[in-house]
Design goal:
By secondary structure, the protein is mostly beta strands. The chain has one domain. The protein is built from no helices and twelve strands. A hairpin with an 8-residue loop joins strand 6 (about 120-125) and strand 7 (about 135-140).
């Protein structure tokens, strides 16, 4: 189903190993995924969009992995983030863009991306029919500096210039994804072994110039939050040319 990103504010106090690629059959209503990225996030228990926020954090600038304690690391390696659940219209994704605040001494801030074309994003809150997996599909070009920020790559040594459609910015063809859960703006878990405080996970790394699928299954025996709805166990990112 197509979902329009709603307009609401959120203070993102914003942590994956890329698995081997494999071909899967996607199941969104729109099966033409040319130019799209498909993301799946799975939890141990049933997703709870009323009590938890689920984040898909993305670095498109080649600066690293967006970790969960972002408020304490200056939002390092955050380029964009989709947020779904508590604090928003329930189970509707919202997109934020991170940038260098021109009115500060290099600090990173973020803005909600309003007025998205509803045809550029699809969302399924119960992708697997078991209540614990969501699926988000968005056009890759959507992350081509939609707010037209003067410095669209926080923490990067240089700023990108427009490039081919396969990658909205020149040279930045490798994107790094992380998935994080929050409750009341406090990180609860991530796909990294360190959970809410992880700083070691290498991320789900995707080559945007090829059609490929990357998956990650979180190992057992690591620290997890008490509520299964906040426990992340699986992440997947598929890129389609």
């Amino acid at each position: 189903m197509l979902r329009r990103v709603a307009s609401v504010t959120f203070v993102a106090a914003v942590a994956l190993v890329a698995g081997c690629g494999h071909q899967v059959t996607p199941n969104p209503l729109n099966n033409d995924l040319s130019g799209d990225i498909l993301v799946r996030l799975r939890t141990q228990g049933t997703l709870d969009f009323n009590d938890f926020t689920y984040m898909i954090a993305i670095d498109t600038c080649g600066t690293g992995v967006p970790y969960p304690q972002a408020a304490f690391t200056g939002y390092k390696s955050y380029s964009y983030a989709f947020l779904i659940g508590s604090g928003f219209n329930t189970a509707l994704p919202e997109l934020f863009e991170y940038y260098v605040n021109p009115n500060s001494s290099g600090s990173i801030t973020y803005l909600l991306v309003n007025n998205l074309d509803p045809s550029t994003i699809q969302f399924e809150p119960n992708d697997n029919g078991q209540g614990n997996e969501l699926e988000l599909v968005f056009e890759r070009a959507l992350l081509a500096n939609p707010l037209q920020i003067a410095q669209p790559c926080p923490n990067a040594t240089g700023q990108p210039t427009p490039g081919p459609s396969a990658s909205p910015f020149q040279g930045l063809t490798t994107w790094t994804f992380n998935m994080i859960t929050f409750q009341n703006r406090v990180p609860q878990d991530s796909l990294g072994n360190g959970g809410a405080t992880d700083v070691t996970f290498p991320g789900i790394v995707v080559d945007t110039t090829t059609t490929n699928t990357q998956t990650y299954y979180k190992p057992g025996g690591v620290t997890v939050p008490n509520n299964p709805a906040a426990q992340l166990i699986f992440g997947e990112v598929d890129n389609y040319l």
